[in-house]
Amino acid sequence: MLFRASAAICGAVVTFAVFAAAARGQDATVHSSAVVDQACGDALVGAASTYNPFQPGTREGGPETASGERYDPSAWTAAIKTSLREKFGGVQFGERPKYALVEAVGKKVIVKINDVGPLMPGRIIDLNERTMRHFDPGMEIGVIRDVKVMPLLGDYWVPGPVG
């Protein structure tokens, strides 16, 4: 009897967890511009470049980010300038990730800020390859000028393009 009750409770918990995850995924996969704009902090404007520590000749960083995650060129991530760390609520090893809205060339994307670094002068953010390809599909521009970066409040964001 006790085993059946435990199995029933376990089944109910698993069902609830799956339902909650599915509901969260449906609601959170695409954020509207209005929702994102309401959650934004003060905007920073500067230049954005890209980085990949696995490319030959890389000058900065390594495969492990400041958050402790491994660099992933296929994720929607970015590194902010070290002096902006506090503006984004930290970006520390083992802490929950921070998020930002990046806007340039008529496009918007939410990125997970998982790294910091001493970026080249004039640059405020380094985008990973996937994020840079969103703005520059052929990776031909190299540096995107007049990029607007706005810290997002909260930790419930799903990185990716904003619809």
Automatic annotation (TrEMBL):
CDD domains: DPBB_RlpA-like. The keyword Repeat does not apply. Residues 46-136 form the RlpA-like protein double-psi beta-barrel domain. It comes from the Bacteria. Residues 1-20 form the signal peptide. The keyword Lipoprotein applies. Pfam families: DPBB_1. Keywords: Lipoprotein, Signal. PANTHER family: ENDOLYTIC PEPTIDOGLYCAN TRANSGLYCOSYLASE RLPA (PTHR34183), ENDOLYTIC PEPTIDOGLYCAN TRANSGLYCOSYLASE RLPA-RELATED (PTHR34183:SF8). This is Rare lipoprotein A. It comes from Bradyrhizobium ottawaense.
